[in-house]
Structure formats: structure tokens, C-alpha cells
Amino acid sequence: MLGIPAKPVPNKFLTIDMDSASIKCLAFFTPENESTEFTSIAPDTKAKIVGVAKHYLEPGVIRGGVIIDIDLVEKSLRECIDECTMSQEESIKDVIFGVSGNLSLNTITTAKITRPPHSPITENEMNSLYSKITRSAFTEIGNEVLRMTGDSDIDMEIITSETVYSKLDNKYVENPLNQTGNVLEVAYYTAFTHSYHVQALQKLAKKLGLKISAVGSEMHTLVNYLKMGKLPHIDCVIINIDNDFTDVGIVFGGGIVSTKALDFGAVDFVNEISQKTGLSFIEAEKFKRTYSYGKLSRTEADVVKSCITEVIDTWLEGLKVVFEEFTGVKTYPSKVYLVGDAAELPDIQETLDKEPWTKSIAFKAPPTYTKLTLRDLQGVTDSTGTLGSLEYVMNASLSKIYMEMHGIE
Predict the structure, then answer these.
(1) Please, which residues have CB within 8 angstroms of residue 146's CB and are 6 or more apart in sequence?
(2) How far apart are CA 249 and CA 397, in angstroms?
(3) What would the CATH number be for the domain defined by 236-371?
(4) Cβ distance 380 to 399 under 8 Å?
(5) What is the rounded CA–CA span in Å between residue 308 and residue 375?
(6) Where does the signal peptide begin and end (predicted)?
(7) Which CATH number among 3.30.1490, 1.25.40, 3.90.550, 3.30.980 corresponds to the domain 104-192?
(8) CA 260, CA 318: separation in Å to the nearest integer?
(9) What are the DSSP calls for 87-123, one per residue?
(10) What is the Cα–Cα distance from 151 to 397, expressed in whole angstroms?
(11) What superfamily would CATH give domain 12-102+196-224+374-405?
């Protein structure tokens, strides 16, 4: 991830997720070596959510994740942070920004070298190998950006990087440094975003007096949480139905091998409800959420269902295209995790279960679907009692970056 830990290390930080519809902010406290009433109830707590806020944005302020009007974003983010931290005695300055959708491009680069078998692997040797891998990753992402936009002059920046696995003579090793072997193989994950987006976040942070601890890939942090415990080499598909985009991540052996974004998300469902009912966007969003929780009357629920049925069919057709566009994936894992704002709609899972959309897609077995909640983020607890929604899971997963940066295990 892009960032350098602050010294002295604070024990509170913010995670921020922004899209065209809203800004979401979470405040965290890391109760390291501190005996509190809360940690006595939840002794495994590594990061405790102590504040939450969500502010809706005016149309056009952010488009496709890109900040268009930085002054209005600054105003909304300031208000969002103030609300999120109102119960805290002191201001929280350390912040982690999440990146998703079309602003995050990911790749795994594998390199294999033959070397003197009895000579220990040195730090210089590893650094040289990682430099070659990084150059190769930049070239691959540059080609992908050119294919997507037709523009070869867009600057990209690494925001997250991690070794997926290392092998010596075809055997997995945790760290090859100082070990001996003839054939060294390393798979390295890198996530990129546009340089102008990082610069916009830096400018925004400066205006608000914030210190950026990191800018990180939300998909990557979520996978790292799933890998904790009994799933270090997990194979799965993650479908994040966020506001602006539907992000699809393919994971093998605990590493993200590829991601793609569908320009279709929760906002499209809300807009359809708004247009067909005459409700404002915010009113339609609340209507959708109440429907997702099964708290509408039968008549009202039928109205929402009729509004979104056609849109879900369109979304599913787009999802099929996304899977067909993945290259280098022969078969897909059958374990599928659903997350994000629109994943709460009961119609989504019903459609995925019933429709024969997977017949043309090479899943290893008929896919099974599981909705991810905060309970799937090991060590994260919510002291506000307000985060039952799936829409905050990706935002909360950014806490993994902070814990890794500060050695919290």
C-alpha cells in the first residue's frame, strides 16, 4: 500500500470510501495492551469501530470514483469526519483511503530464475528480482490501460504490493532469503491506480489537515482478512456490488489473480426506483434499504421488486460479459462471496441461484453464494451497534492495512 507509518504510532485512524453517491467514513481504535470494558467482552479485538458516518453527495461531484469538484468533496468529507468522530475527545488525523472500481487495476506477475544451488539467496538478489517483477507489472498494466482507454500517456502508481508465494526447487517457502536452491520462483501481486487520483487525495488531505497513512486496494484488504485463520490459500470469487461499479475478483491460493469492474452498481438500482416512483434519490435509497431488510409492506415490496427486476436482468448480462473477458483463468472457483451495498437485495441472490447464467462460464462446480459481513473480518468489532449493512464491509477491511503497517497481529 502507498504510505509510511507515522511515528509515534497513534492508536486511532479513519478509513474513507468515496463514490459518486456518497462518502463513508469509519473511525477505528486499536486497543493494544489496553484493558477496556469492550475488550473484556471481545478479547480478540484488534480494531474497534468507534464511529461511523455517511454523507450523500450532489450529482457530478465525483464521477466513476474520480473527484471532479474538490471543494464540494472537501466540504462533505469534513462534515462526514466531524460526525464520525464527534464522540472522540481528540481529533483523528491518520487516514486510509480505499480504491476500487475502474480506479484499481491489479496483476500477479510470476518470475522464475535459475541460480547457483549451494549459494544462499541474498537481499540484493531478491531486490533485483522484485525490481524486474515491478517493471514487468508496470508494462502489463500500461498495456491494459492502453487497451481500455486508447491513451498510452496515463500515469499509473503502485498502491499495494505483496508476495503471493515463493518457491525454491518447486517447494513453497515462507521467505527464501538466506536459503539455498537451484530454481527460485516468486509470484508478486501489485495494485495500481491513476497518479492523478493519488494527487487529488493528497490535495484533499492537505486541505483537511489529514495525514495519509495509505491508499490501498479494497479488494486486496478484504482477501487478506479472508486468508486469516483457516483460509490462507483460499480459492474464491468475490463480487462487490458497490454504488458505481460491480467489482469481480478471482482468487487462487490466497492471491488475487485478476479483477475486472462492471460499470453498473447500486446507484443504477436506486435510480430506477427513483424514476419509477417519483422519489428523490435519497428517499429511493432508503426505500431500497428497507426493502432489503424485509421491512416494507407487501404492496410496497411489490413496487420495489417491479422497479428492479429488469435492472437486475441487465446487471446479470453485464456480469456474464465480465467473466467472459477474464483471460488466463481456465476454471473459476465455485465459492462466491457477495459484498457491497446492492448485495443485500434478496433479488440478487435469488437471480444468481435460479438463472442458468453459469452454464457458459467454466466454474469448477455449481457456485455457492455467501454474503460477507463484518463478522468475516477477524479481529474487527463494532462498538457503535449500527453497522449491520454489507455496504461498510469493504471500508472496514481497509483496517487490515493499518494493522499490517503497525505490526498488529
Answers:
(1) 152
(2) 15
(3) 3.30.420.40
(4) yes
(5) 29
(6) none
(7) 3.30.1490
(8) 12
(9) T-SS---EEEEEE-GGG-EEEEEEEEEE--TTSPPPH
(10) 32
(11) ATPase, nucleotide binding domain (3.30.420.40)
Please tell me what DSSP assigns to residue 171: E
* CA distances (Å), origin 403, targets 58, 104, 233, 273, 360: 34, 22, 20, 40, 41
Grid cell, residue 165, equals 508465494
User: Going by C-beta distance under 8 Å and a sequence separation of 6 or more, which residues neighbour residue 333?
Assistant: 235, 236, 237, 250, 251, 252, 363, 364
One digit per residue, the tens of pLDDT, for the chain of length 409 reads 555 444 444 689 999 999 989 999 999 999 865 544 444 445 678 899 999 999 999 888 998 788 999 999 999 999 999 999 999 988 999 999 999 877 888 888 999 999 999 999 999 999 999 999 999 999 999 988 888 888 888 899 999 888 888 999 999 998 999 999 999 999 999 999 999 999 999 999 999 999 999 999 999 999 999 988 667 778 999 999 999 999 999 999 888 888 899 999 999 999 999 999 999 999 999 999 999 989 999 999 999 999 999 999 999 999 999 999 888 888 999 999 999 989 999 999 999 988 788 888 999 999 999 999 999 999 999 998 888 778 899 999 999 999 888 887 7
The contacts of residue 143 (CB under 8 Å, 6+ apart) are none
C-alpha cell at 49: 469501530
The CA distance from 396 to 377, in Å, is 8
State the amino acid at position 258 in one-letter form. S
Of 117, 119, 56, 38, nearest to 385 by C-alpha is: 38
Close Cβ partners of 305 (under 8 Å, ≥ 6 residues apart): 291, 347
Quick one: which H or E segment has residue 27? Answer: strand 22-29
Q: Where in the chain is the domain with CATH 3.30.420.40?
A: 12-102+196-224+374-405, 236-371
The H-assigned helical ranges of 160-265 are 195-208, 218-226
- Residue 387: Cβ within 10 Å count: 20
Bond from prior residue into 43 cis (ω within 30 degrees of 0): no
Cα dihedral sign, 114-160-148-248 = positive
pTM: 0.89
326: amino acid identity, one letter: F
Distance CA 166, CA 111 (A): 10
Cβ atoms < 10 Å from Cβ of 153: 7
